[in-house]
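**Folding the chain**
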Amino acid sequence: MTVRRKESEQLLLENARLKAALNEAEFECERLTIINSNLERQLEEANRELEKNIEVLQSLKHEIEGIVQSLTDTNHN
């Protein structure tokens, strides 16, 4: 086997190894893209829930402030 042929075979093997590694990396990239998309949807849903909870808490705060004011007014009369 000539040196040139041996080098050529080594390069072919290295090329095959690198293609396999690239395919693996592409698969992992696709997997992470799907995970990222799912997490993004979950975050959007959590943000909507949080906004609703903030609105409820603000409403309760105003109600409590009204009750406190009413009690204060009642005690002053």
